[in-house]
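In response to reviewer comment 3 from the previous cycle, which asked for concrete evidence that the modeling workflow produces usable outputs, we include below a single protein chain processed end to end. The sequence was submitted unchanged, and the resulting structure tokens are shown without manual editing.
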Amino acid sequence: MVIEVLLFVVLVSFMLWLDLHGHKSGQAVTLKDAALWSGIWVAVSLLFAGYIWAVDGPEKAGLFTAGYLLEKALSVDNLFVFMAIFASFGIKPPMQHRILYYGILGAIVFRLLFIGLGSAALLAGNLSPVTHMTVYTAFGLVVLYSAYAMLTDADDDASNDKDYTKHWSVRWFRDTLGWPITSWLDGDKFFTRITGSWQGTPLLLCLMVTETSDIAFAFDSVPAVVAVTKDPFLIYASNIFAILGLRSMYFLLVAAKQYLCKLEKAVVGILVFIGFKMLLEAFHGPLTSLLGFSIEIPVLVSLGVVVLGLAIGVAASYIFAEPQV
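The workflow returned the following structure tokens.
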């Protein structure tokens, strides 16, 4: 097991280093690059499963693969929540890679803490009812608002000159918590120095919200993987390999929108679905008590809606192609 852990650490560290140096800050990720890296992350995950098969046998390899596929399916919603968060903050693709890169690093650390402290014991009960309702309601509303913003082309002109004075996050962190936050972006910096003191930028707040969304999803997704295997290493490895490929999948979706004219409308529809799904999750307990039965959207149904929505967007882009200017 020691060799497997060392190989995992070295492999993940090397791939993260390679990914960081392969994407320069300030440059948008192209469709070809996103597709290539999506394939690379899947291939690396399968190669690691093959190594586990060779060393520990088919049973553990099968558990790792099952956990990886389950976590991958559960993480699909994250893609659209990321998109909603970036739309809310008006963050354009060239800076999104930086946020997602550090967001993934945070996810690696937080999930290690969760699982290291005892995944089954710590996460079996998930979030407390009040916290669960608050977190999912907040993100559900952000996703729905972002769907509206994308539909009406709001925040389309976001840039370093955008004024964030009235943005909900800046007002809350600055006015409620008293944090020193600027009202503008300073390139791709999370902190900037003003009149001799350091202040956070809205990019830092976007990173914090992105990281919080991953933590919220972890409280639901990790216990699902625990149901597949109780081996802490397999739980953690399957989680990490699944979320490491999320960033490339996200940019694959973003890049595809540039070539498929109707795909963005399909994404808006998916965001509405996910927003209402999160609100349904937030009020699951009260609704169950009120109706006398549980209303849940199974993972496969949710995944099916996403795949169907994207397929409709792709088909509509070809059927109702807009003339090239």
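The chain is about 75% helix and 0% strand. We consider this sufficient to address the reviewer's concern, and the full set will be provided in the supplementary archive.
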